[in-house]
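User: Fold this; tokens only.

Assistant: Input:
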Amino acid sequence: MSRPLRELLNEKLPEDLDPEVRRKFHYYADKLDRRGVLAGTYHRRVTIPKASLDSDALERLGFVPVMIAVPESGQDSFISYRHPELLHHIHSHGPNWTMHEDTHPSLTMALRSAKLPSEKLDAMVRGTTHVVTEGIPGLGKYLANRFTAGADMVGAIKRDLQEAYKAKRSEREARKKERSNAFQKRSSATALLRQG
């Protein structure tokens, strides 16, 4: 995990958090940061087995259950989890969660920390930015998926991960072939020089 991400997580997660729960969340946040896939959306996503982090662990991490969010295809509950200090958002999909990181704080999370009138105004602006730039486009994608019988989110994530893996494997094989061809050319040139 990159040092800035680890420091941010450590700063925003509860101090008295169980080290094993902290370690698991660090792992999934790092996985999202490094290998998350778009899965037909505007945010990179990863899946998290609920056997690894259950809803109690999410709440110990500081996540708050919310009911105001655009659902994902295949989501099995209208309750999702947001972190008031981080931009991570987690949705339930049977035995898995999906996690993405929003670009802007949701309106509910922004207002949650606002105390003064000026802070509330700022929270409204930030939260409205989230609704306009993330919520409305996300709702459009969700509805389009509903009408076209698109893949559920977990299936889309798995599909995109497989495609990314295949692309990387093809890249590695192409580089290996290039190195092999270059080596053969050098070997042939060396052999010709020795003969001549």
